[in-house]
Amino acid sequence: MTRAYSYACRDCEGMEACPASMTTQTKDELWQLMALHAKLAHDENAADWDQDTRDYLETLIKPVSV
Q1: CB under 8 Å to 26, separation ≥6 — which residues?
Q2: What is the Rg, in whole angstroms, of the alpha carbon atoms belonging to the chain?
Q3: Cα–Cα distance, 66 to 39 (Å, whole number)
Q4: What's the whole-model pTM score?
Q5: Cα–Cα–Cα angle for 15, 33, 29, nearest 5°?
Q6: pLDDT for 8-51, tens place per residue?
Q7: For position 38, what pLDDT does the model report?
Q8: Among candidates 35, 19, 30, which has minimal Cα distance to 61?
Q9: Alpha-carbon distance 40 to 5, whole Å?
Q10: What InterPro entries does the database record attribute to this sequence (predicted)?
């Protein structure tokens, strides 16, 4: 089994209707996809996320085995 990381946008408060989820091999790659998704789907700029938001999103990243 390989270790990977997963994020489901619907787990984020206020985004319950969003069907997007992603799984990547590294957290860095996952953060990049989360930022891209935020821009394309929610018109959010990840550069505007403050540290509290980043800390909250970090709690939504789950380690998974693939």
Answers
A1: 5
A2: 12
A3: 27
A4: 0.92
A5: 135
A6: 999 999 999 999 999 999 999 999 999 999 999 999 999 999 99
A7: 97
A8: 30
A9: 21
A10: DUF1059
Q: Residue ranges of the domains in the chain?
A: 3-65
Q: How far apart are CA 53 and CA 25, in angstroms?
A: 23
In terms of Cα–Cα distance, which of 11, 6, 24, 16 is closest to 56? 11
Nearest Cα to 31, choosing from 44, 46, 50?
46
Determine contact, residues 8/57, Cβ cutoff 8 Å. Answer: no
Q: Strand pairing of 21-24 and 62-65?
A: unpaired
**pLDDT greater than 80 at residue 62:** yes
Neighbours of 38 (CB within 10 A): 20
Both tokens of 47, joined, read 């550069």
